[in-house]
């Protein structure tokens, strides 16, 4: 989804609180009078009032082409692309000339990120005027630029300029072209020329500020952003740019002033929350940053700078899976973001995905780079993979480079001008990260420290922490890092001192308290851990993370009453917070207290009627209690809210699938894809719908779409292989499974590969592959169990026993494994059969499979009475299992009940003439 200009957040916030009925004295105004009033308000910059007047005009005449056109144009000014498109198309249907509608319609499509539609639909005709022709050329050039066709775009920008010299966006486009060609002087000339046009000057000044940042002139950039704000005092973008640069320069008081102004203009807007999140992140208050970002995602789940910032926050808080997901989404939208790429690689390395981390870094070409941070990160990962020569080369090079200068260039490695709107949005965070010389945490330093801590380079981490400490002597985050390094060195005394120093600076600094609590738990002192969080609550009695931490402590100690108490307190003090409600609802569901869970979820929606997370909780709860119709109703409301997300449509689709409405589910999924064309869960759900309907070729196409959009992930290749197996195209399936495994697929994909190889007849190759896998993954019990079953099916009972014994060493009290072993011992006439079966039965006395195994062994060893009783119980639970029926009939024979045995065997062979023990059953029947 394309980011809408930030003014739209303000307009949406204003419109949400406004009645569209107008005042009573407007009731007697005519349609034309209302339209004139709307134009007057628009000219004065009062967009909210203009929209209200036009809505009133349309109430009088819904078919007013003039009102529809003007409303579309006003929505366009507000940055509301979808709304603008709707009104402009209505105006065209009502008779407004296509040549009038075409330019604003193109701008609306650009706002929505519909670049292909711009190129397909917005084309000049013989009737197009020269000014409109220039605008159309410029819009098509913008669309080409966004799709990576730089040269075509630049040629078209020049054609736009040749047609009309009075269109500022043409000059912005030419400046981007010059920047892409590394001609910053020419880029400045184009922006100077745009400033001479008395139109859209605020936006031109913003581009000028970006240009100054690229040339490492932060003070000149601040002046340019100030000029933008003077030109348009309500420009949230200008205020945001100024605040972000202030943060990067350590001028936090000035940044705070800008952020407060943003909040006053748009109190609960996306930008206000994002700005607060960025400032909190720079101050090391990750919890506050996370809370502000949650507010952002409720407004715009795909807001790219927030996704990137949230990835950094989650990395800093140790939530690596979530960080990887958010950073991956960021790189999908902006593959040129060096900051996101490095942070994703560090996250992948933290998750043990070193190969993927190196692949993520490869586009940055670490070997040829002069970025000390990149070199250090790549070098550390190579150390992890034991490629010592490469690691030493990179780390020695990193040590010889001034990281401060490298950081400046790295932070601006993505051109604010050259890469278009997406890059400009990301540059806010990246430039702040790179240029920070003040009291906020340096992202370059932070990432280096975290990377060193991750890879247990604790002495090097302490050196980096000392460097950061000199820059920020009173930053609790620095002491928190130092404590982490000492924990790694097992110097717990100094670790405690460091964490306690962080709390001395900021007594409610939650990360340090959490780390001290972990040390307390390791020392088997849960009471001390509890006091850490209680101390935070003494300072801030409503601190939500502390309450949630106390709930988690209670859960760890199996103190369910305290767990519930803390969650209930969190709900009471933060009624709008969803996480404690979610935790409570899950607990109630596991305890079969469905009504309590449902009441909790309903309360969340009543308190937060417009909160997508609340609706998601209610829908999930309804689905869990099998209220499919209720879940569909809730998710339908969710997608009807302001800006529905792709995930909202996914939730709706899953509820519809559960309700056996595949066609409606497919419609919801397709709508979700329109919002997020690369959403892997939606694509996979569509694929599985196709498979359920035996639409194999469409399913293959979706699998390949997943591969193209997520080439680093195994899912697409595994799904394609599954379909190829269904089509009996086994060699191609084997190749696809192998690709999935190269991408990191696990045991399930490997077992599928083996099954396919066995089916294709390449048995020796499959067996060797199986042995190699178990040597490389000795703890993979899923594959080891598969090996045991395979050996058993091929009559190699001793090999099967060896595999199950190996599993038993790792999982000594698994009833299912013991049961299988007992069966194998029985087949091999091994005296361990009975004691092993007894052990399995002791662990799971009500399992019919285990009852059958033990009962049969007892019968064969002459303990017929007890064996018959167990077999009778197994048969009651598995009346159609032929093997259990055969065992039961044999036991009847042994107890002398031949008549009943004859009856059982006759019916058994009629029902299952070819089951595994059919010959033995037939012989037994003939003997009676």
UniProtKB/TrEMBL annotation:
<keyword id="KW-0802">TPR repeat</keyword>
<feature type="repeat" description="TPR">
    <location>
        <begin position="134"/>
        <end position="167"/>
    </location>
</feature>
<dbReference type="InterPro" id="IPR011990">
    <property type="entry name" value="TPR-like_helical_dom_sf"/>
</dbReference>
<dbReference type="Pfam" id="PF13432">
    <property type="entry name" value="TPR_16"/>
</dbReference>
<keyword id="KW-0732">Signal</keyword>
<dbReference type="InterPro" id="IPR014266">
    <property type="entry name" value="PEP-CTERM_TPR_PrsT"/>
</dbReference>
<feature type="signal peptide">
    <location>
        <begin position="1"/>
        <end position="22"/>
    </location>
</feature>
<dbReference type="InterPro" id="IPR051012">
    <property type="entry name" value="CellSynth/LPSAsmb/PSIAsmb"/>
</dbReference>
<dbReference type="InterPro" id="IPR019734">
    <property type="entry name" value="TPR_rpt"/>
</dbReference>
<keyword id="KW-0677">Repeat</keyword>
<dbReference type="Pfam" id="PF14559">
    <property type="entry name" value="TPR_19"/>
</dbReference>
<feature type="repeat" description="TPR">
    <location>
        <begin position="578"/>
        <end position="611"/>
    </location>
</feature>
<protein>
    <submittedName>
        <fullName>Uncharacterized protein</fullName>
    </submittedName>
</protein>
<feature type="repeat" description="TPR">
    <location>
        <begin position="372"/>
        <end position="405"/>
    </location>
</feature>
<feature type="repeat" description="TPR">
    <location>
        <begin position="476"/>
        <end position="509"/>
    </location>
</feature>
């Amino acid at each position: 989804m394309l980011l809408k200009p930030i003014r739209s957040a303000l307009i949406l916030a204003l419109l949400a609180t406004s009645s569209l009925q107008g005042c009573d004295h407007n009731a007697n105004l005519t349609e034309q009078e209302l339209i004139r009033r709307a134009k007057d308000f628009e000219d004065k910059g009062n967009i909210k009032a203009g929209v209200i007047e036009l809505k009133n005009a349309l109430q009088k005449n819904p078919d007013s082409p003039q009102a529809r056109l003007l409303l579309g144009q006003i929505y366009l000014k507000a940055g509301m692309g979808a709304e603008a498109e709707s009104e402009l198309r209505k105006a065209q249907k009502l008779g407004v000339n296509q040549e009038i509608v075409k330019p604003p319609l193109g701008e609306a499509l650009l706002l929505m990120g519909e670049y292909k539609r711009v190129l397909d639909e917005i084309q000049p005709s013989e009737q197009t005027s020269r000014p409109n022709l220039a605008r159309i050329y410029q819009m098509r050039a913008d669309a080409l630029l966004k799709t990576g066709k730089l040269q075509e775009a630049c040629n078209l920008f020049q054609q736009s300029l040749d047609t009309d010299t009075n269109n500022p966006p043409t000059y912005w486009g030419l400046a981007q072209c010059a920047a892409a060609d590394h001609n910053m002087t020419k880029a400045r000339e184009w922006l100077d020329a745009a400033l001479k046009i008395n139109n859209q000057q605020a936006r031109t000044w913003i581009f000028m500020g970006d240009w100054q940042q690229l040339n490492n002139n932060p003070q000149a950039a601040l002046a340019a952003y100030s000029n933008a704000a003077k030109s348009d005092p309500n420009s949230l973008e200008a205020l945001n740019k100024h605040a972000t640069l202030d943060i990067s320069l350590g001028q936090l008081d000035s940044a705070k002033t800008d952020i407060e102004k943003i909040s006053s203009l748009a109190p609960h807007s996306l930008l206000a929350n994002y700005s607060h999140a960025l400032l909190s992140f720079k101050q090391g208050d990750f919890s506050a940053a996370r809370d502000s970002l949650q507010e952002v995602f409720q407004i715009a789940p795909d807001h790219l700078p927030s996704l990137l910032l949230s990835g950094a926050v989650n990395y800093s808080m140790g939530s690596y899976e979530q960080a990887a997901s958010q950073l991956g989404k960021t790189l999908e939208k902006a593959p040129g973001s060096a900051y996101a790429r490095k942070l994703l690689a560090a996250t992948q390395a933290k998750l043990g995905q070193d190969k993927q981390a190196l692949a993520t870094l490869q586009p940055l070409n670490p070997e040829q780079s002069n970025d000390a941070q990149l070199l250090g990160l790549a070098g550390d990962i190579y150390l992890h993979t034991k490629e010592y020569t490469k690691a030493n080369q990179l780390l020695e090079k990193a040590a010889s480079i001034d990281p401060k200068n490298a950081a400046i260039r790295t932070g601006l490695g993505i051109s604010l001008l050259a890469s278009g709107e997406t890059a400009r949005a990301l540059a806010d965070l990246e430039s702040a990260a790179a240029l920070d010389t003040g009291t906020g945490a340096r992202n370059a330093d932070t990432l280096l420290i975290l990377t060193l801590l991750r890879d247990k380079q604790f002495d090097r981490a302490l050196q980096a922490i000392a460097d950061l400490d000199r820059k920020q002597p009173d930053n609790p985050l620095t002491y928190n890092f130092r404590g982490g390094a000492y924990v790694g060195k097992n110097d717990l005394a100094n670790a405690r001192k460091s964490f306690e120093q962080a709390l001395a600076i900021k007594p409610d600094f939650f990360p340090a308290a959490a780390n001290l609590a972990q040390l307390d738990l390791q020392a088997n002192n849960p009471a001390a851990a509890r006091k850490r969080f209680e101390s935070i609550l003494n300072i801030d009695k409503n601190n939500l993370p502390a309450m949630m931490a106390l709930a988690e402590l209670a859960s760890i100690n199996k103190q369910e009453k305290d767990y519930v108490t803390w969650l209930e307190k969190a709900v009471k003090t933060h009624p709008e917070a969803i996480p404690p409600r979610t935790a409570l609802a899950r607990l109630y569901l596991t305890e079969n207290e469905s009504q309590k869970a449902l009441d909790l979820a309903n309360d969340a929606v009543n308190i937060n009627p417009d909160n997508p997370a609340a609706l998601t909780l209610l829908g999930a709860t309804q689905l869990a209690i099998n209220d499919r119709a209720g879940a569909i109703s809730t998710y339908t409301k969710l997608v009807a809210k302001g800006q529905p997300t792709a995930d909202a449509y996914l939730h709706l689709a899953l509820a519809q699938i559960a309700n056996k409405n595949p066609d409606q589910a497919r419609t919801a999924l397709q709508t979700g894809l329109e919002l997020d064309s690369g959403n892997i869960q939606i694509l996979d759900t569509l694929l599985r719908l196709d498979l359920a309907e035996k639409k194999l070729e469409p399913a293959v196409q979706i699998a390949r779409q997943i591969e193209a959009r997520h080439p680093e992930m195994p899912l697409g290749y595994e799904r394609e292989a599954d379909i190829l197996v269904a089509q009996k195209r086994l060699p191609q399936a084997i190749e696809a499974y192998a690709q999935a495994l190269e991408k990191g697929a696990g045991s399930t994909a490997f077992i599928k590969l083996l099954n396919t190889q066995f089916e294709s007849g390449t048995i020796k190759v499959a067996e060797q592959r199986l042995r190699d896998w178990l040597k490389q993954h000795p703890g993979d019990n899923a594959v080891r169990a598969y090996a045991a079953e395979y050996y058993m099916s091929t009559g190699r009972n001793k090999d099967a026993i060896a595999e199950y014994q190996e599993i038993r060493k790792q999982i000594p009290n698994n009833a299912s494994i013991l049961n299988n072993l007992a069966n194998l011992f029985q087949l091999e006439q091994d005296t361990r059969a009975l004691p092993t079966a007894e052990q399995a039965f002791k662990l799971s006395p009500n399992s019919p499979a285990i009852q059958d195994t033990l009962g049969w062994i007892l019968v064969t060893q002459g303990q017929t009475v007890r064996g018959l009783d167990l077999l009778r119980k197994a048969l009651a639970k598995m009346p159609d299992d032929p093997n259990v029926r055969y065992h039961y009939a044999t036991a009847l024979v042994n107890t002398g009940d031949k008549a009943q045995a004859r009856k059982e065997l006759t019916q058994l062979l009629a029902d299952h003439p070819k089951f595994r023990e059919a010959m033995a059953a037939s012989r037994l029947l003939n003997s009676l």
